[in-house]
Design a protein that fits this description.
Pfam families: Aminotran_5 (PF00266). GO terms for molecular function: catalytic activity. Its cofactor is pyridoxal 5'-phosphate. Residues 2-362 form the Aminotransferase class V domain. It comes from Staphylococcus equorum. Helix 4 (100-111) links the parallel strand 3 (91-94) and strand 4 (115-118). The protein has 378 residues and is α/β, with parallel strands linked by helices. The chain is 39% helix and 14% strand. The chain is built from 12 helices and 12 strands. Helix 1 (14-26) runs antiparallel to helix 7 (238-253), helix 2 (36-55) runs parallel beside helix 7 (238-253) and helix 3 (70-85) packs parallel to helix 4 (100-111). The two termini are 30 Å apart. The mean pLDDT is 95. The chain binds 4'-deoxy-4'-aminopyridoxal-5'-phosphate (PMP). 4'-deoxy-4'-aminopyridoxal-5'-phosphate is lined by residues 69-71, 99, 101, 146, 150, 176, 178-179, 197, 199, 319, 321. 4'-deoxy-4'-aminopyridoxal-5'-phosphate binds at residues 69-71, 99, 101, 146, 150, 176, 178-179, 197, 199, 319, 321.
């Protein structure tokens, strides 16, 4: 199969799988147990966190909380900070670009009395920084902004947004960097919390990370035995956490290289696709290189995904998390993509395992699918 759905999930690296199995066999003790094996497990847990922080030169600046995925990390950060700040700041600023694991959290907080404000989106899919400035006040508890969008791939001005947010000392800046790691350099400047998901960079599903600048800013949303600084109770998954370092090192240390390769594939695909009547590129020009969103007006995205799937090419409509929802995608709507083009959108997403041959095979099959749907195009 030609796998071009890496924004939905990636294939785990072999050394990640091997490490996971090996640590489960040799170091299965509970990191909270007081005996020798427990102490050893805890020591390894702390070393693992240090290795992750060292990768980004963050030692002394952030704590790391291991979670079950970015969905949990986003919930933990947004709810945790919101509850902590509720008494003195109750506004949350977000945008429709965010993943449901952010948007649905803030919408749920809205039902609990928080005021949600949406920052405008520019035509190239970035948050409007001038609008953000006008929304900021001393009542803002949280501003949340993703690093790279999961549907179109556009990157966001994280550092500039952080500078605006931090003119208001009470405001907390949260970043969902799930689609950024390994593809573009991560920005921690001015960031208070940052979420990652292991399976998006060749780690395992069910593995999340939350970087927290000040752990005391989080009210726990999961209660229990007090693990992970008391903010994420539950026995830590040491084998998983040790394994993720392998994937993270590979992703971070090869970001420049992969960015370059995927940019070449992306440019090649853009050039190829613009040669077809009725095919429009939805992703802005300077997006992250691994995601290319394309619209074929007149055909349904699902029909295209099925047609490619029959040719053994796996890609998706918008995102795996929203592809089953009937409504038009809010991200594409916010970027003024015409309705028919949104309905006929597909997302091609590449990763570290994507090869030139994959791109070539995709192109050969694109001709076939195009012929199959040609008469439907408007
Ligand atoms: N944020 C973004 C931008 C994502 O793409 C995803 C995964 N689709 C998530 C958060 C949630 O990650 P997970 O499903 O691993 O919890």
């Amino acid at each position: 199969m030609i796998y071009l759905d890496n924004a939905a999930t990636t294939k785990p690296n072999q050394d990640v799988l091997d490490t996971y199995v090996k640590v489960n066999q040799s170091l299965y003790s509970n990191a909270n147990s007081p005996h020798q094996a427990g102490l050893q497990a805890d020591q390894l847990l702390q070393q693992t966190k240090k290795q992750i922080k060292d990768l980004f030169n963050l030692d002394g600046k952030f704590d790391i909380v291991f979670t079950s995925g970015a969905t949990e990390s986003n919930n933990m950060a947004l709810k945790g900070v919101a509850y902590k700040k509720k008494a003195f700041a109750n506004e949350i600023i977000t945008s429709v670009l965010e993943h449901p694991s952010v948007l649905e959290v803030v919408r749920s907080l809205e039902t609990e009395g928080f005021i949600i404000k949406y920052v405008d989106v520019t035509e190239d899919g970035q948050i409007d920084l001038d609008h953000l400035k006008t929304l900021m006040s001393d009542d803002v508890a949280i501003v949340t902004c993703m690093h790279v969008n999961n549907i179109m791939g556009q990157t966001q001005p994280i550092e500039e947004a952080a500078n605006i947010v931090h003119q208001y000392p009470k405001a907390h800046f949260h970043v969902d960097a799930v689609q950024a790691i390994g593809k573009v350099p991560l920005c921690f400047e001015g960031v208070d919390t940052l979420s990652l998901s292991g399976h998006k960079f060749h780690g395992l599903k069910g593995q999340g990370i939350l970087f927290v600048r000040n752990i005391h800013q989080l009210e726990p949303i999961i209660h229990g035995g007090g693990q992970e600084y008391g903010v994420r109770s539950g026995t830590v998954n040491l084998p998983m956490n040790i394994a993720i370092v392998k994937a993270m090192k590979a992703a971070v240390n090869h970001t420049t290289e992969l960015n370059h390769t995927l940019n070449e594939f992306n440019a090649d695909l853009r050039q190829f696709l613009t040669g077809f009547h009725g095919v429009k590129l939805n992703s802005p020009q300077n997006s992250a290189p691994h995601i290319l969103n394309v619209g074929l007006s007149g055909v349904k995205g699902e029909v295209l995904v099925n047609a490619f799937s029959k040719h053994n090419i796996m890609l998706s409509t918008t995102s795996a998390c929203s592809s089953k929802k009937a409504s038009l995608n809010e991200v594409l709507l916010a970027m003024n993509v015409p309705r028919k083009q949104i309905e006929g959108s597909i997302r091609i997403s590449m990763g570290a395992n994507t090869t030139q041959e994959d791109i070539q095979t995709f192109k050969e099959n694109f001709y076939k699918v195009y012929e199959e749907v040609r008469e439907l195009l408007v």
